[in-house]
Each structure stands twice: as structure tokens, then as C-alpha cells.
Amino acid sequence: MAADPLFNPLTVGDLQVRNRVWMAPLTRCRSLLPGHVPWELNAAYYRERATAGLILSEATEIAQEGRGYPGVPGIFTAEQIAGWKKVTSAVHESGGTIVCQLWHVGRASHQAFQPDGKDPVAPSAIAAAGDVHLPDGSKAPYPVPRALEADELPGIVATYRTAAENAKAAGFDGVELHAANGYLIDEFLRNGANERTDEYGGSVENRCRFPLMVLDALIEVWGKGRVGIRVSPLGSFNDMADSNPLPLYTHLFGELQARGIAFLEIVGAIHGDDIDDDLLQKINAAGREAFSGTLALNGGYEGDDARTALREGQCDAITFGTTFLANPDLPKRLKEGADLNESNPATWYSRGPEGYVDYPSMDGGPVPRSDDPS
Ligand SMILES: Cc1cc2nc3c(=O)[nH]c(=O)nc-3n(C[C@H](O)[C@H](O)[C@H](O)COP(=O)(O)O)c2cc1C
């Protein structure tokens, strides 16, 4: 066992990972257009970060209907699968492990992104407050989405299943269901966005029903040992809220345990969210108690706070977002106590290499190709 808890290897379902410094999913809007295809630039970015114990890919669209941001990659065309192969090969060549975060944005979209200019879909016809960034760079208020009919849901489950199969064909090591941050799955879970009166709304059991149908499809494709889920119980991003999150997530965590999936990632505060820290601790503890798979926590961790969380047994791994974005060699820096680069929000969602593959390693130059701090 390593003296530094960040560097204890870990078994995550069927995966063996070399450390507990994981890379959080980070949308970077740099796929090739018009096909929304991952390419060599993306492979270079992920290769630099392959020393993460586990890389959670940027959110990846399961279908055009699931798109709500410019320049983000998909996993539903042959070209996209071939593009992702370049990424997964680069990560594997450098000894890393990468799972694909599967994404349908639900109401966080606009007709401009949808096939034939249709309305975005959601559990209920409730628009998110705020603006959507359109493909031409302008902004518009989020439109009122169309509430999905119950008999449409199996079709969306099938789309997730196909995307999971595509992720396998693309060489990923597993999948993470994006059930956080106000996108489709999260919109079903939390009653700020779900006012349905059928078997997919109301009680916590009902609101978990569709998310679990999707999760079961992913398990059918990958096996439980290569499937994880990301939730953000208290996050307000994309105008989200729930009237009573603790029982909702306690129920969900029990269902995850019943399925025996590989990992659960709980997101705390993102983008400066002001959240109820006591309630977050209770939800994290409920996850720990109910779920015996790998628990990863996210939100604002930098190093010593991550070590404390691991030492206290609050979780098994930490996912680092902005810190990994700006520090391609983050595990090595944490191991050696080096200073960290600051991330530059101006280039988070821009195009091209600037602010993407030009963050220096701790030695000042590019990250060496097979840098293994484990
Ligand atoms: C540029 C950027 C892109 C993000 N993209 C995603 C994403 O694709 N999927 C996701 O679940 N969360 C996404 N997030 C949220 C991060 O994964 C993470 O939860 C957040 O940054 C808080 O962690 P941190 O404090 O370590 O940065 C994004 C955050 C940032 C800053």
C-alpha cells in the first residue's frame, strides 16, 4: 500500500486502475466539424492525461437529438467510432484507462441542434432558465421542450444501448451514464424538471424508473463491471433542483447496489455552485453506506483535501475537473508536491490547440509520452 492514498491501485468492477487521481468528464468542444468527430488533436489531449487512474471522457452524444452544444463529439456514426478509436488507442498505448460518458442533453438544447429543427425533448414541458449557446456562436433562451410520451422511452433506451455498443467498438474500457448536471437522465430524477403523473414521475421509485432502464441496457452491453454512473444531487447547473434529494438518491444508490455496477461518481459543487454542504455530506455518506462498488467524489478537490477524503474512507477515488484540464501530468504533480497550473476559462470551450494541448508539464515542456507515476 502506498503511503500516499492517492497512489494506491484500485479494482473498479472489472477494471484495475493504478491510482485514485481520476480525470473528470470535461466538454471541450474540439471535435471535427461538421461530423462531430474526434480526431488527432483530441487523441493528443487525452494521451497527455493518460496517467489518470481512470479517464472519464467528455460527455458524448448518443444521437443528434441528444446534442445541445457546438463542437462536441458523438458516438453514433461510423466516422465518430473511428475517431474515438484514435483516442482510446492513444490512452491505452500510454498505459491509461478510459470510459465513455454517454450523454443526452434533454431540454438543455435548442431547435437549431435538433434534426429537422424539432423541439428538444424532456420529461416535462418546462424550459430551463438561462441561455443556450447556438452553433453560430449566438445565444438564445432555452426553449420549452416537448414532454416525451411514455411509449417513446424504450426507443431512447435503445439509442443508449446502441451508443454503448459503439463505445465498445471504439475501444473504450467501459461507460459512464451521465445522470448529472441537468441533462435528460437528471431531468427524470429531479422533480424540478419532472412533473409527470405517469409511472415515470412523482414517487422516487417512478423518477428512477427511466434512468434505471437505461442503466440496465448499458449493463446488458458491457456487463456490470464496466458500467458507472455520475449524479449531481444538489447541483443547480441548468436550472436544476429537487424538493427532497436525500430519499431520492438513497433509493437510487440502493438500486445501483442491487445491480452491482462498477462505480458511482457523486458531484458536489461545480462552477461555484453554492450548495448545502451538510446535506451533501449526508448524501455522500448514503452513497457510501448503500453502495459497495467504487465511490468517486468530485467538486473542488486539489490534493490534500482529496487525501483526507480517501484516508477518512469517504470515497475510493477523486475526480479532478479543472485541475486536470490545466495539469496534464496532475498525478505526478500531486505525487511530487509541485505547483499547479491555473486553468483558463476563456479557452474551456474554444476551438483549436490553445488552452487544450499547450498546458505545460511540471518540467516545463510537453508531457512525456509514457509518463508513469504509479
Ligand atoms: C470546461 C468544463 C467542461 C465540463 N464538461 C463536463 C462534461 O462533459 N460532463 C460532466 O459530467 N461534467 C462536466 N463538467 C463538470 C466537471 O466534470 C466537474 O464536475 C467540475 O469541473 C467540478 O470539478 P472540479 O472542481 O474538480 O473542476 C465540466 C466542467 C468544466 C469546467
TrEMBL record:
Class of enzymatic activity (EC top level): oxidoreductase
Keywords: Oxidoreductase
Keyword Oxidoreductase among UniProt keywords: yes
InterPro entries: Aldolase_TIM (IPR013785), OxRdtase_FMN_N (IPR001155), Oye-like (IPR045247)
One GO MF term: oxidoreductase activity
Annotated CDD domains: OYE_like_FMN
Chain intervals for the UniProt region annotation (Disordered): 335-374
Domain spans labelled NADH:flavin oxidoreductase/NADH oxidase N-terminal: 6-340
Known EC number: 1.-.-.-
Keyword Lipid biosynthesis: no
Coiled-coil ranges (or none): none
Organism domain of life: Bacteria
Cross-referenced PANTHER family: NADH OXIDOREDUCTASE-RELATED, NADPH DEHYDROGENASE 2-RELATED
Name used for this protein in its record: N-ethylmaleimide reductase
